[in-house]
Write a structure and sequence with these properties.
By secondary structure, the chain is mainly α. The protein is 73% helix and 0% strand. Helix 3 runs antiparallel to helix 4 and helix 5 runs antiparallel to helix 6.
Length: 147
């Protein structure tokens, strides 16, 4: 029998693997409709978590809002990956941890932003802007050697 630490590690590894290939598969499967991709990925995630369903606390409002938000997020992400450059789109997609830090005081009055949080957020957004412009060729901050 596999102990719980190894099970947790394997579950995390599987989640990272699935998340990392999502953009690649979305771009490589242009004929599959975004609505089907969204439904199938959420169905797969739901089926994987189904054995733990009895341990959940069911608040119907929370489930409806959460499921709707996740569905809308995934659906819009699949559409964005198809209609814009995938690297830039994925880079913008991965700015959500910055938004969690910067928007936390709006939802939790006990959280206070310090100057380091704001500075870190600005640095993250600035890095994303530089990387996106660098990818598109508009701005290049790399200095090429003369000669």
């Amino acid at each position: 029998m596999i102990n719980s630490e190894i099970k947790s590690f394997l579950a995390a590894l599987a989640a990272i693997l699935m998340w990392s290939v999502m953009a690649l598969l979305t771009v490589k499967l242009p004929t599959v409709p975004p609505f089907f991709l969204t439904g199938s990925t959420l169905l797969l995630g739901g089926l994987i978590s189904l054995p733990k369903a009895r341990a959940w606390s069911w608040n119907s409002r929370f489930i409806l809002v959460g499921a709707g938000a996740v569905f809308l997020y995934q659906f819009l992400l699949f559409i964005a990956l198809r209609s814009s450059p995938p690297i830039e789109c994925n880079l913008i997609n991965y700015l959500w941890p910055l938004l969690i830090v910067l928007l936390a005081p709006i939802f939790d009055r006990q959280v206070h932003l310090r100057s380091v949080h704001i500075l870190g957020g600005l640095m993250g957004f600035t890095g994303a802007v530089i990387a996106i412009y660098n990818q598109s060729g508009s701005i290049s901050l790399v200095v090429s050697p003369a000669g």
